[in-house]
Specification:
- The protein is mostly helical and 356 residues long.
- It has 19 helices and no strands.
- α9 packs antiparallel against α11.
- It is globular.
Length: 356
């Protein structure tokens, strides 16, 4: 009876959700929660997660996943149950829960039996019911075309050995298609909203096997990240999409920083993107020995920390130093605990290195 009650409450939330809700307070709070986790202030982090999850009908599955790990690691199983249930109803999948040693322990004790399969399926149906299926299939068709050309381009010889010089026409064709598809995604964004977690859900292996089933939503972003001019196309539209919760701060930041990536590693020349703005992924010159960027990036970051943190705060990302803490914790967690069945530790999977 208790489990049915949980499902009923979650269904009620979705059926009575507001048509449009401002996600800026949500993103600000999540940044505070991640900062609290990085500082080992777990009680504060759990309180923030709970407050935000109660306030919003849709929450991002990654946030529920992180919150659940912290709750389990600190023996707060009541909150863990709520976080996992909310996560599943918003796209968190069983494969992710079973792969993580924190949530695996919870899964075995709570949903790892025949009776509870019904609960899981009911929660997944809530997730599917809110998705714009037509928009999702439009994105799947675009990503299929993208990956078909990408597979032909990204062979070891062409991509790694010859840096796309072996089949230059094929590479140019792929880049032209990526820019064309970016404009199609922009049209869909202006009509429906940015096609990601909230509107088209997370990756579904039954619909597109190549990406499998997981809590990422990469149909749009994979195309946009490697399109030369995606940021220029989308820049003016993104603030409104962030406010509506259709795109995450991390996706927003990566779109901008990939513009720099195309300048540094490609043939594009644009002084507006001489270096990264948000520094989510690239923090050194290791992969760019022959690039146009000649200044030591570590020194640049140190000298411009206030500007970088101001930029990050403007789109509700945690500070650069918090990002470093999360990255270090992520790496240590992968090294010591990933792949095991139990993690009696206060290290967590933040999906830090994922593309969302």
């Amino acid at each position: 009876m208790a489990m049915r009650y949980w499902v009923f409450i979650l269904l009620f939330i979705f059926q009575n959700s507001l048509i449009s809700q401002n996600y800026i307070p949500y993103f600000k709070a999540i940044a505070e929660a991640e900062t609290a986790v990085s500082d080992s202030n777990f009680t504060a982090a759990l309180s923030i997660y709970e407050t935000q999850f109660l306030a919003y009908p849709f929450i991002f599955p990654k946030d529920a996943y992180i919150a659940a790990q912290v709750a389990i690691a600190t023996d707060n199983y009541m909150l863990a149950k709520y976080f996992v249930y909310r996560g599943i109803s918003c796209g968190l999948d069983s494969g992710t829960l079973k792969a993580n040693p924190h949530t695996y322990k919870w899964w075995v004790n709570n949903l790892g039996n025949t009776i509870s399969v019904t609960i899981y399926d009911s929660l997944r149906k809530i997730n599917e019911a809110r998705i714009n299926q037509t928009l999702r299939m439009q994105m799947v068709e675009l990503i299929r075309k993208d990956q078909k050309l990408r597979k032909r381009n990204e062979t070891y010889l062409n991509a790694v050995v010859f840096n796309h010089k072996l089949k230059p026409r094929l590479y140019r064709k792929w880049m032209r298609q990526a820019d064309s598809q970016s404009l199609q995604i922009l049209q869909l964004t202006r009509k429906h909203g940015f096609p990601s977690h909230q509107l088209i859900g997370s990756n579904d292996g039954e619909i597109y096997r190549r990406f499998g089933t997981n809590m990422r939503s990469t149909y749009a972003t994979v195309i946009l990240f490697h399109a030369n001019h995606a940021w220029q196309f989308f820049e003016k539209d993104l603030p409104a999409q962030l406010e509506k919760g259709n795109i995450t701060p991390k996706q927003y930041a990566l779109l901008r920083d990939f513009a720099t990536r195309h300048v540094i590693t490609g043939k594009l020349k644009d002084s507006a993107f001489i270096d990264y703005k948000y520094f989510i992924r690239w923090k050194s010159n290791v992969l760019e020995p022959d690039s146009i960027y000649r200044v030591n990036r570590a020194n640049f970051i140190q000298q411009n920390m206030q500007t970088i943190d101001s930029a990050r705060a403007s789109i509700y990302l945690p500070s650069y130093k918090t990002g470093l803490k999360l990255s270090a914790m992520q790496s240590e967690f992968y090294e010591k605990y990933w792949g095991t069945k139990n993690a009696n530790c206060l290290l967590f999977d933040f999906c830090y290195f994922e593309w969302d």
